[in-house]
């Protein structure tokens, strides 16, 4: 039963943050000691997660995220998702291309007492950067 509740918290986060693009509407879903494990230099905690959300929403304001799998075990939930969007804003110094872009993501969330405490993500960033012209495409 805890695993199903944890999945519902993650689905709520996905709906608010990724589908409604409401970066500031997620605070109640996160533990005050929340830790993200992004490799990029970002502020710690929820501020870093929100910074990523604002960056992605700015570059891809029409992003549509689709949950492909949501698997829970113990205190963790794993989400595999795909995203489709139009590159309408600057991303990492690259000017908008107005091209349709797609990528995949795998997220791992650790929850305690119904709140997200930790977050890890693996994103197909190389593929995304190739599509916007920031990296050369493979031959």
What is the structure about, briefly put?
The chain is an alpha+beta fold and 139 residues long.
Can you characterise this structure?
The protein has one domain: Nuclear Transport Factor 2, Chain: A. 29% of the residues lie in helices and 36% in strands. The chain has three helices and five strands; from the N terminus they run αβαββββα. It has a five-stranded mixed beta sheet with strand order 1-5-4-3-2. 18% of the residues are buried. The model has no long low-confidence stretch (mean pLDDT 95).
In helices, the fraction of residues equals 25-40%
Count the domains.
Answer: 1
Strand content: 35-45%
Query: What is the radius of gyration computed over CA atoms, rounded to a whole number of angstroms?
Result: 15 Å
How many angstroms does the end-to-end distance come to?
48 Å
For the secondary structure, the number of strands is 5
Q: Secondary-structure element sequence?
A: HEHEEEEH
Q: Provide the spatial order of strands within the biggest beta sheet.
A: 1-5-4-3-2
Shape: globular
The CATH topology annotation reads as Nuclear Transport Factor 2, Chain: A
Structure annotation, total helices: 3
CATH architecture: Roll
Mean pLDDT: 95
CATH class descriptor name: Alpha Beta
Largest β-sheet summary? 5 strands, mixed
SS-derived structural category: alpha+beta
User: Could you name the ranges where pLDDT drops below 50 across 5 or more consecutive residues?
Assistant: none
């Amino acid at each position: 039963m805890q695993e199903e509740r944890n999945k519902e918290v993650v689905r709520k986060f996905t709906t608010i943050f990724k589908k409604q693009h409401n970066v500031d509407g997620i605070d109640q879903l996160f533990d005050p000691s929340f830790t993200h494990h992004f490799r990029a230099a970002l502020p710690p905690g929820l501020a870093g997660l929100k910074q990523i959300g604002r960056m992605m929403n700015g570059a891809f304001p029409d992003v549509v995220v689709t949950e492909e799998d949501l698997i829970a075990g113990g205190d963790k939930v794993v989400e595999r998702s795909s995203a489709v969007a139009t590159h309408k804003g600057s991303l990492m110094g690259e000017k908008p291309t107005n091209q349709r872009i797609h990528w995949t993501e795998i997220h791992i969330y650790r929850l305690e007492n119904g709140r997200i405490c930790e977050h890890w993500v693996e994103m197909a960033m190389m593929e995304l950067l190739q599509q916007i012209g920031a990296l050369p495409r493979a031959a």
